[in-house]
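For anyone still unconvinced, we reproduce a single protein record, the chain in one-letter code, the fold tokenised, and leave readers to judge:
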Amino acid sequence: MEAYFELAREGENVAQDLQAEYDLLRQEVDRLETETMLAGENDHLNAIVTIHPGAGGTESQDWAEMLLRMYRRWAERRGFKFTLNDFQAGEEAGLKSATFTVAGDYAYGLLSGENGVHRLVRISPFDQAARRHTSFASVFVSPEIDDTINIEIKPEDLRIETYRSTGKGGQHVNTTDSAVRITHLPTGTVVQCQNERSQHRNKEMAMKFLRSRLYELELRKRREAADMLEASKADIDFGSQIRSYVLHPYRLVKDHRTKFEMGDTDRVLDGDLDPFIKSYLLSRRTVSKSG
């Protein structure tokens, strides 16, 4: 930028170049500023994210898949590794559930504020009368726990089931019961994996997910003020949402916790979540200091 200023003083037209450099610098400063707010014990870890549609059938299932795409695009924008671990397709469109891992520096810290219910308002593409519909989906984020952390899981507390993979078709769908679902009976926690080709590998991955979920549950017990994580237990319906995405009659994405909003809904749904993440982290830090 100093070189461009020098050229400008010599009469060169470098306004566009300066603006481009400024925009890059602004992005870098925003990124560094955000990272200074990630000081939690697990903020530096990878994130395991699960999405479930709320009531509403195809509408909510389609919305859940839109959220899956949004987070995939966000991970790509940041250069993080995105791995889809489990995908249960909806009957007509969308998904019944999906679990994925985002691997990268501070992935969990950045995504932890996404816990809760996300609400969509739009003209339904599935309604022949073109009426406005409201759909809900829940997002649950937990840290990918390192293997060195000891979480005691008793074999008698587990129910392990196998089933045939139900992916989107093609060569990735197994013809054997290689997918694995594990239920932790004391807590009711259910995890599943069908991404790997072998049942053994799917079981290994599912146990990893379970250990992470149980660790997160233990942290929740220790933290009395766990409002965000408790949202995963709330009804996935009106009144419990953390963020609304309105596509009709106007276009706006608004976070109900921080009051931060953006009018460019397409940009947000294409993965530009950093402004919302930063505003959440700022509000969390403010609450922490005041407390």
User: Anything to note?
Assistant: The chain has two domains: 2-35, 47-290.
